[in-house]
Amino acid sequence: VLDAHAEWLARAGEGDQRAIGRLISLVEAENVDLTDLSTELVARSGNAWVIGLTGSPGVGKSTTTAALVAELRRRDKRVGVLAVDPTSPFSGGALLGDRVRMNDHAADPAVYIRSLAARGRLGGLARAVPHAVRVLDALGYDVILLETVGVGQSEIDVAAAADTAVVLLAPGMGDAIQAAKAGILEVADVLVVNKADRDGAAGAVADLRRTVAGTTPRAGWRPKVVATTATDGTGIAELLDVVEEHRRHLVESGELSVRRAARLRAEIEAHALAEVQSRLNRGEAIEAAVAEVQDGRIDPHQAALDVLRTLL
Ligand SMILES: Nc1nc2c(ncn2[C@@H]2O[C@H](COP(=O)(O)OP(=O)(O)O)[C@@H](O)[C@H]2O)c(=O)[nH]1
Ligand SMILES: [Mg+2]
User: Fold this and answer.
1) 10 Å Cβ neighbour count for 116?
2) What is the rounded average pLDDT of the residues 215-236?
3) Ligand 2 geometric centre to CA of 290 (Å)
4) Closest ligand, as measured to the CA of 101
C-alpha cells in the first residue's frame, strides 16, 4: 500500500490528473490505511490559500468561480477547484453546466477541477474536504476554490473550511436584509453583489456596506463588499485584491493559525466520530449493552459509556 501511494503521489506531482483524483478519493475508501500518505501530505501542505464561495442557487457561484480561475491564471497562479455537494451521493465528475463553463480551463495543467460529495456517511464531507484540499495544497496549487453546489447547512460548512469565506448575493434576491437574516454576515469575510449589470446593484452594495458598518469586527476584520459581473469579468480582479487583503490581515494578526487550528479540530473530531461509528458497527459490545438495559441493570447513557470504553 505504501509503495502504491508513493507512486500515485509521484505521478500526481507530475500533473497526472487521474493520479490526483485517485489520491483525493482514497479517503473515501474503507479499510485502507492512509497514515503514511496523510503524514506526507500534512508535511508538504500549508501554503495554498483556500477561498470558499457560497450563496443561493443561481446567484452566480459557478460563473464567478470560472472568472476567478481565469484571473488567477493571469496572475500565474495554479488553481484547484472543488465543487462541494453534500446533498449528492455522487462524487467524481463535475456537473454538466459547470463543466461547460470550465471548458476553457479543462486542458490547462495548472488547473484542477473536481466535485466532492458526502456519500451519506457520518461526517463524510468533514473528512473529504480537508483531505482534498490537503492533496492539492501538497501538490503545489496556490489557490483552492471551494464552491458550494448544494444548499443549506453546506454554506456554513464550506465557509468554515475556507481561509477566506466569500458569500455571493444578487440584486433583487433580498439583499442586505436576507443576508442579515440568514446569518451570513457572521460567516462572510467578503460579500459579493454579483449581477452588478442588473438594476438595484448599486443600492444593494450601499445597503450592505451600511449594514456591515454597524457590525462589530470579528478578529479585527469587517466583511468587505465588492460588486461583480461574473459573466464579463467586471470586478473579479478587485474581488481577488480584497481576498488578498484579507489574507494579509489573517497572516499579520495571527488569526490564520487560529482559524486553521479550528479547522483541524473539526476534522479530527469528524475522524473520531467516524471511527467510533465504524467500530460500533463491527463490534458486539452494543448488543451486550442492549441486554443489560433491557434487564434493568443499567440505563442507556451508562451503557453507552461502557460501550465506548470497550472500543479503545
Ligand atoms: N446578468 C448576469 N447574469 C449572471 C451573472 N453571473 C451569473 N449569471 C447567470 O446566472 C445564472 C446562474 O449562474 P451560476 O453561476 O450557474 O449560479 P450558481 O447556481 O450560483 O452556481 C446563469 O445563467 C449565469 O449565466 C452576472 O454577473 N450577470
Ligand atoms: Mg453552480
Assistant:
1) 26
2) 96
3) 46
4) 1
